[in-house]
Design brief:
The chain has 13 helices and 13 strands.
């Protein structure tokens, strides 16, 4: 009975996944030799590397860029041409490597993705890493990102009357130069003349509607049954001949009558608001909280973002949908002065998309619209 039980235990131990054969036995040596022979047989088989679906590129040390030797698939949104050759930006090469669409070689040796990271991004932490994270994430979800180009797109767009009005307004407010194509527009002279007339009407307080006043008595206005004087009356012949005397009489009448704003102060809603407002503890901002010119950071736009369904063409691109400003770890969001400075530096202003990269490589985006 004891021999039968030991035989059953040996069979069960040999049939399982765990080996219980002692080391240094003849059985172990034979099994290892068999495994070695199978491995040599597998390694000696001829292997064919199929590059179907992958482009071939090599590292160009002179240009410090990735030179594409053979394209495979669509490359419409990737690369740039220089000296009759097609090159890839570092973020484009890494993205294609991760998508298994590119084989990168260094001195005729195929590089792994880890080696490509060290070559293209460097060993130390640089802004390139954050730029690539943002580029790869937004490209995977369908957006088109290209290197930022601060060029005017006005020459490719026929300006409208609204564009002419905005160009004239920004020229007065922000001293922004008026684009040449706006000046050449047939609407420019007409809009400029109309805006000049409106400016004169505002400064002189003489609207065209005032010239067509009716002869009806408009000296009183009825607000919920309350008759309130407007301080206006018909001009007489003597006053039209002597405007100085007429002005003096109007001032006397206005000072003796109660104005419309004073009547509103007697309303119960105004008194209730006044009592509530008096309870507020108003804290004035100190001078230390105001950013000086030395504290304003010089931020730069990294990418131009296009939507995938807008018919993007790299040779003749349209104005981008957003411009990307990338912030690294522990970098605060831009202040009003900083974001305004970035917006005004654009030759063709579009909304700013601020992207912040966290410590765990999480990405948060904030859109800044300007009106």
């Amino acid at each position: 009975m004891e021999k039968m039980s030991t035989a059953k235990v040996d069979k069960q131990s040999q049939s399982g996944l765990k080996r219980t054969v002692p080391e240094g036995t003849v059985e172990e040596a034979l099994e290892l030799n068999k495994l070695y022979d199978d491995l040599r047989k597998q390694l000696s088989l001829p292997r064919i590397d199929r590059l179907g679906g992958r482009a071939l590129a090599t590292w160009d040390p002179d240009e410090k860029a990735v030179h594409v030797l053979r394209k495979d698939g669509k490359f419409g949104n990737f690369g740039y041409s220089h000296g009759g050759r097609l090159y890839l930006e570092y973020y484009e090469a890494l993205y294609l490597l991760e998508m298994n669409r590119l084989q990168l070689e260094y001195h005729s040796m195929i590089m792994s993705i880890e080696q490509a990271y060290l070559l293209l991004l460097g060993e130390t932490a640089t802004p390139k890493c954050n730029e690539y994270l943002v580029y790869a994430h937004l490209t995977r979800i369908g957006y088109i990102l290209v290197r930022h180009q601060n060029i005017p797109y006005y020459d490719k767009i026929e300006p409208t009357e609204e564009d002419c009005a905005w160009a004239l307004a920004l020229n007065v407010i922000n001293n922004r130069a008026i684009p040449e194509n706006v000046k050449k527009s047939p609407h420019f002279v007409k809009v400029k003349k109309e805006m000049k007339q409106i400016k004169e009407c505002i400064t002189k307080q003489q609207l065209q509607e005032q010239k067509q006043l009716s002869e009806a008595d408009s000296s009183t206005i009825n607000f919920n049954g309350k008759v309130i004087s407007t301080g206006k009356r018909k001009i007489t012949i003597d006053e039209s001949e002597n405007p100085t005397e007429a002005k003096r009489r109007c001032l006397e009448v206005a000072s003796s009558q109660k104005s419309f704003l004073d009547c509103l102060k007697d309303e119960p809603e105004y008194k209730q608001f006044q009592a509530t407002f008096a309870k507020f503890d108003i804290v004035q901002m100190g001078d230390t909280a105001i950013n000086t010119e030395d504290e304003v950071r010089s931020l730069h736009i990294a990418f131009d973002l296009y939507l995938h369904n807008n018919g993007f063409k790299k040779r003749s691109p349209k104005p981008p949908t957003f411009r990307l400003l990338i912030l690294g770890v522990h970098e605060p969001l831009p202040t009003h002065a900083e974001i305004t400075n970035i917006y005004n530096l654009q030759k063709y202003p579009v909304p700013i998309l601020v992207v912040s990269v966290g410590e765990s490589k999480q990405i948060q985006a904030f859109v800044y619209y300007f009106s």
